[in-house]
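Format notes (please read before filing issues)

Several people have asked whether sequences and structure tokens are stored in separate files. They are not. Every record keeps both together, in the order shown below: the sequence lines, then the token lines. Line labels are part of the format and must not be stripped during preprocessing.
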Amino acid sequence: MKYEEICSIIPHRYPFLLVDRIIENDGREWIVGIKNLTANEFFFQGHFPGNPIMPGVLQLEAMAQVGGVLMNRLLKMEGQLAFFLAVDNARFRRVCVPGDQLRIEVRLIRFRLGMARMHGRVLCEGELASEADLMFGYARDNGKQPVT
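Then the structure lines:
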């Protein structure tokens, strides 16, 4: 799945779209995305000058976006906004720098009452960079409030 199709499924856009391509998707519980980090990424300018590192919170966001693609395809809700409700057990193990390629793996753990729990991992050049348990839900009231 390339950029155009990703953009038809989730509402994120440049500069905040943090997935370049979907390379695996079983259509039910497993998806893998790719993000190529370049020196031109907006976050490298200030994090940190002279020592650019991808912020851990953006690694979590990349997992969430890939998870959003899975969730929207699974529920046939392309273009809808799945809100990020919770992050648990987040661990950061390796820095990611310009020139690295991130492999973002997300597995659906449970879907119930309009909410999904997923486990995500970011591998950087084949090494585990970060992982976390993520929870998502869709908006109610025309997108003004997340379902809680």
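For reference, the curators noted about this record: Residues 3-146 form a domain with the Thiol Ester Dehydrase; Chain A fold (CATH 3.10.129.10). The first strand starts at residue 21 and ends at 25.
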